[in-house]
Amino acid sequence: QVQLVESGGGLVQAGGSLRLSCAASGSIFSINRMGWYRRAPGKQRELVAAITSGGTTTYTDSVKGRFTISRDNAKNTVYLQMNSLKPEDTAVYYCNADCRRELEDGTYYGSNYWGQGTQVTVSS
Can you tell me whether residue 87 is helix, strand or coil? Predict the structure, then answer.
């Protein structure tokens, strides 16, 4: 199995910074796309940022210039550096990854995995 474990959430004042981390563990052969999503109270979950194994990134418009996604392929870890935080960034942030696992019979199985979520609260 694959597990995604997030860390780094918390309470911060507007204008402050937080850095989220998400480490993938398990019988992982490779990880393609990794991303961060968020769900604010009363809203649907949305993609915040994503990064491919080659380093191509994408961001939702509301975080461009403030958030930076990066990854360490050797550690199967993705990061989200969040600067100039605003109260509207308050949400539960979820890590997501497209992983390929090597099974016992030598075949490979690809699937999408989610972390448990970490709360980010920005006070005004």
Answer: helix
Q: What is the DSSP letter of 124?
A: -
pLDDT tens for the chain, 124 residues long, are 899 999 999 999 999 999 999 999 998 999 999 999 999 999 999 999 999 999 999 999 999 999 999 999 999 999 999 999 999 999 999 999 999 998 889 898 999 999 999 999 999 9
**d(C-alpha 12, C-alpha 118), whole Å:** 14
The dihedral built from the CA positions of residue 27, 1, 5 and 118, taken in this order, carries a sign that is: positive
Q: Which amino acid is at 81?
A: Q
Cβ atoms of 45 and 95 closer than 8 Å: no
Q: Quick one: how many helices (H) and strands (E) in the chain?
A: 0, 11
Residues 6+ apart with CB under 8 A from 23: 4, 5, 75, 76, 77
Q: Select from 54, 64, 58, 10 the least CA-distant residue to 35.
A: 58
